[in-house]
Amino acid sequence: MRLEIITPEQEIFKGEAEAVQLPGLDGSFQVLNGHAPIISGLSVGTVKVDLSVPFEAGEKTSNLIQKDGSNAKVIRVEIKGGVMELFNNKVIILAE
After folding, report:
1. CA–CA separation, 53 vs 60, rounded Å?
2. C-beta separation of 13 from 77 below 8 A
3. Closest listed residue to residue 58, CA positions, set 46, 50, 67
4. Distance, CA of 42 to CA of 5 (rounded, Å)
5. Torsion, Cα of 52, 88, 79, 10 (10° steps)
6. Shortest CA distance to 56 belongs to which of 21, 13, 7, 25?
7. Residue 13 to residue 55: CA distance in whole angstroms
8. In this structure, are residues 68 and 94 in contact, taking their beta carbons and an 8 Å threshold?
9. For residues 61 and 56, what is the distance between their CA atoms, to the nearest angstrom?
């Protein structure tokens, strides 16, 4: 599925993901490829992304992205809250 993580200041990440774990208002939840449409508020926490291909940082890579040392296909992004929408296999996270 296509994933975009955006803050008011910058685009944090844009790419393909197999699964995204999110800090929901009522607890952590995960969405997978082919998940039903959903909109949810997000609380303070970590967005964990299981990527389709290993992550490679470029010169425009946000410093908010943390690589998982043991798995090149996993990244984490700390957020202060926000909202997410999944529709037609595209996840958009508007984060603070």
Report:
1. 18
2. yes
3. 67
4. 13
5. 90
6. 13
7. 11
8. no
9. 9
Structure tokens belonging to residue 36: 């039903």
Which amino acid, residue 59?
A: E
Block residue for tokens 């303070």: 44
Place of tokens 């929901």: 24
Domains of the chain, each with CATH number or no CATH = 2-95 (2.60.15.10)
Q: Tell me: the pLDDT tens digits for 44-93? A: 999 999 998 888 877 677 778 888 777 889 999 999 999 999 999 999 99
Residue that the structure tokens 């009522």 belong to: 26
Q: How many CA atoms lie within 13 A of 18 on its CB side?
A: 9
* Model pLDDT, residue 50: 94
Q: What is the pLDDT of residue 59?
A: 66
The type of residue at 57 is A
Contact by Cβ (8 Å): 83, 27:
no
